[in-house]
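Protein 1 of 2
SEQ + STRUCT:
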Amino acid sequence: MDSRQLTAESVPVFQEGIGLHLSRWSALQMAVENEWGGRDSRRKADLLVSDVFSFFANSKEPLYIDDLENILEESLLSLNTMAEDGSIEEVAEKLMVMHEECLEGNYQSIEKMRATNPPPVTHVRQVKDDDDHHDDDGMGDDNTTNMMLDVPNSQPISNPIDKPTDEPKSEQKAEAADDGWTVVSSRRNKGRKN
């Protein structure tokens, strides 16, 4: 059992370290920026910083990483966000190591975070349950983006309509409307009568 406590000097540094580390957690930051937890998403994130500090500072029992992971996961769930990328475990481990360093009076990792800018947050999306029927901005935008990425921009697409057929092209060109649309007859019914 580790009965060591943070010193008066290390408490504010450790609190700052928790805040710095959580501010670099992309899942949490995306949930806050996009208000996935509602209008009070920022307050929920701030509450997580205080909950994590309380976990370390007020525990009379040994600290287990599983308990810290549960705190982090519950906080994300309050923001309607799930992290299935292993980031909860990674954040919990880094916080445990940072706590151990602060107990030893070593603040190098926190000083390093102070000196560096947080990485840009771009790769996390809100996870919606199948039961969630609110489709405000999730699927429509994602499908459109994916469809746009699938279309090659630099190479022309071969058009089977332009290939020679048994029928004259003048009929197809004659059916082109003034708005640029062309009516194309079905190939299924050509030459067959059932």
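Protein 2 of 2
SEQ + STRUCT:
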Amino acid sequence: METLALHSSSLPTFFLLFLFIYLFAYFLVFRNWGPKHRPEASSCFISLAHGTPAIFMAVNALINTQYPRTFASPNSVLDNIVLEYSISYFLMDLLHYLLFFPNDILFILHHLATLYVFFTCRYMVHHGGFALLVLLILAEVTSLCQNIWTLAGFRRADVPAAAKLYELLSPPFYAFYSVVRGVMGPFFVYKMGVFYLSGVAKNLIPGWAWTSWMVVIVTAILLSIVWVFDHWIDWYKGRNYKAVKKVV
């Protein structure tokens, strides 16, 4: 059953939480890391604090509802809490990129586009949270593995154990990521597209909203597929190089 509606947004509280976690990681957890990887590792740290909790929060929101859910269902109180939690994370991580990596245009655009979708769903349209929460689960289910893999990659040149962990995680992580982002994600987005194009949601979700959401989501999935494909190629080349090196 759903909880009582919140009388005020939890966005400021969540943002302060992620700010505290980021500063804790930057000044304590990774204080001995170099200037390049220290902010990047802190970004991974808040991603860890967001990803897995967001999955449990989203699952809880999806199963604790009093009415059947569709792609045009009104957002529940729990839906809104999850959206605010994720908005807070992306705002904090966007601030991180603007401060430390202002030239990383792709990630900045990704965060702005994601914030646009979450913000309009939460504060303007008030419908469609069901679809976004399912997509959030699919996006974050690889987060734990990806962040550990990324942190290991930062230190693999200096720490042998990190290099081994990076090599060990790479194939299963790429495979898991490929299935989620290359199969499950596109299938769910296809179902969304069919639903919206049928016109069922026209009186609940404005055309500009679901059209722009679909553009952002499809673009993100395509970029994810390209990203993992490039890493598969690099992994295959590295494996062949090591095999040739052993023979020589």
